[in-house]
Amino acid sequence: ALNKMIQAGATSLLTKHKDKSPDEMITMVYQRALSRDPNPAERKICQQMLSDPMMQQGLEDMLWSVLMLPEFQHVR
Length: 76
Prior knowledge:
Blueprint: H1 2-16, H2 22-34, H3 40-49, H4 56-67, H5 70-75
Helix pairs in contact: 1-4, 2-4
């Protein structure tokens, strides 16, 4: 069930924010999920997951990595 939700979320983000660069998408996801910007190490890892142009699978992987952070689980 969670996988389907992440797939749908990635599809929605790609559709609604197709004008955003990968770096802008990373910042937006972190701000919405964790109420903060990614630190340099997190940004670098996420940049490796996303490509330019962004692909569905890379965005799904990034969403998984953010959602599995203990910080996300405590914030929400």
